Amino acid sequence: MAEERARGLYFEEFSPGMELLSPARTVTEADVVLFAGLSGDYNPLHTDAEFAKGTPYGQRIAHGLLGLAIASGLAARAGFIEGTALAFLGLNWKFKGPILIGDTIHLRAKVAKTRPLPSMGGGMVIFEVSVDNQRGETVQRGEWSLLVRSRGEEG
Fold it and tell me: SS3 for 135?
């Protein structure tokens, strides 16, 4: 049986300047509650509505790391690394603003640099990534480095 082509892009298909956009996703109350349970982070800023009323946000906000986790999922949903990402090598990340419960966020990724790593079966792709809400505000941003599989002999 012939092997199907991966849905994601191979290393050779990425080029500096290429821009990719994910679908959007609304951050829900359930997301925040489940993330608190999964991570053990029950900070009242995320879990106590009365406490959160007295903060600069006036309401509970999503965990910053929940936003990063959702961003990773949005990259997967966008499909450009599906079946071709071999490893997440690192990141440099900034939390620029709150993600409110009910915000709809999407991921924007721009290829900043590529570097072949033939001994690793592909190459490193460095993305400039931003997470933006429905108001066009960037709430998180940074740089992701991924090891992406080379096309090899499939192409």
Answer: coil
| 122-132 and 25-26 beta bridge pairing | unpaired
Fold annotation for 11-149: Thiol Ester Dehydrase; Chain A (3.10.129)
Chain segment 38-91, per-residue pLDDT in tens: 999 999 999 999 999 999 999 999 999 999 999 999 999 999 999 999 999 999
Give 26-48 as a 3 state SS string: ECCHHHHHHHHHHHCCCCHHHHC
Integer Cα distance of 90 and 141 in angstroms:
14
Hey, what are 97's tokens? 């603003």
Residue with tokens 């993330």: 35
